[in-house]
UniProtKB/TrEMBL annotation:
Keywords from the named record: DNA-binding, Phosphoprotein
4-aspartylphosphate, modified sites: 56
GO MF, one annotated term: DNA binding
Protein name: LytTR family DNA-binding domain-containing protein
Keyword field contains Repeat: no
Gene3D superfamilies: 2.40.50.40, 3.40.50.2300
Organism taxonomic ancestry: Bacteria, Pseudomonadati, Bacteroidota, Cytophagia, Cytophagales
Length: 284
């Protein structure tokens, strides 16, 4: 049985990935999921060591690449991402496996085949606390076929991923269905997006709601990050829609959105892990 550690902050995405892995001919033991860099580091250091890591790129407290700055990883890594415009190119150049979201069964099957080809000569993961990127061990040093995530590669990938995508790549409008009709909603008329009962809804500035065929994670990659922020798992809001911000319990922040979301959703909170990033986003 192979141990797979899932690092994914979208519960639905994590459950789908786990379900797909458990359908494979190779038996998998699912570890995690970890929802943040900090949780992933803690799980890697605590053990048991996984045979493969499935890493989402953008997590609640930063980029998953940042965990390589804190622990040494010698097992195969499969990155999962909705960002095919720039991240995937970097993965290909550096021979790192990736799965482009939404992940389908055939992609998982092919990834497992690649994993099986590597495992006979790859050692199990060995994780130790690190003081800097420069101590990352190359694959050859560890007797493994896993691509070496050396300091230069990590620095280049982090720089590339932290750069905003070209403005032209962001969505300028959404096509939604209203009865038997299609309606175009310019992105300037979007107040926020929110998840409700496994459905993603667009809340417009004029108080109307529309169903959109995107996950919250996909929307993060489609919208201008200088204008929209992922407050939590369920809400992705435009700055202009945030009418007020209030200190909440456990070092969290409560946002007052306009138009107001359904009362059933409760207070719209910014989690502790995101408070610092959220403040920086507001104070840019």
């Amino acid at each position: 049985m192979l141990r797979a550690l899932l690092v994914e902050d979208e519960p639905l995405a994590a459950r789908r990935l786990a379900s797909l892995l458990q359908k494979q001919a190779v038996p998998f033991e699912i570890l995690g999921p970890a929802e943040s860099v900090a949780q992933a580091v803690a799980l890697l250091q605590a053990g048991p060591a996984p045979d493969v890591l499935f890493l989402d790129i953008h997590l609640a407290d930063g980029l998953s690449f940042e965990l390589f700055e804190q622990v040494t990883v010698t097992c195969p890594v499969v990155f999962t991402t909705a960002y095919d415009q720039y991240a995937v190119r970097a993965f290909k150049v550096n021979s790192v496996d990736y799965l482009l979201k939404p992940i389908d069964e055939e992609e998982i099957r092919q990834a497992v085949v690649k994993l099986q080809q590597r495992l006979p000569i790859a050692s199990r993961g060995d994780f130790s606390t690190k003081s800097s990127v420069s101590s990352t061990k190359p694959a050859a040093e560890n007797g493994s076929s896993v691509p070496g995530l050396d300091a230069a590669t990590l620095a280049a990938l982090l720089q590339q991923l932290r750069q905003p995508a070209p403005v032209a790549s962001y969505k300028s409008q959404f096509v939604v269905r209203v009865g038997e009709h299609l309606k175009v909603v310019p992105v300037e008329q979007v107040a926020y997006f929110f998840s409700l009962e496994k459905t993603t809804l667009l809340q417009s500035t004029d108080g109307r709601k529309y169903v959109v065929d995107y996950t919250m994670e996909q929307l993060e990659g489609l919208l201008d990050p200088s204008q929209f922020f992922r407050l939590n798992r369920a809400f992705l809001a435009r700055q202009a829609a945030i009418a007020d911000i209030i200190h909440y319990t456990n070092s969290r922040l409560q946002t007052i959105l306009k138009p107001a979301p359904p009362e059933s959703e409760g207070p719209v909170l910014v989690s502790r892990e995101k408070v610092s990033v959220f403040k920086n986003w507001l104070d840019r």
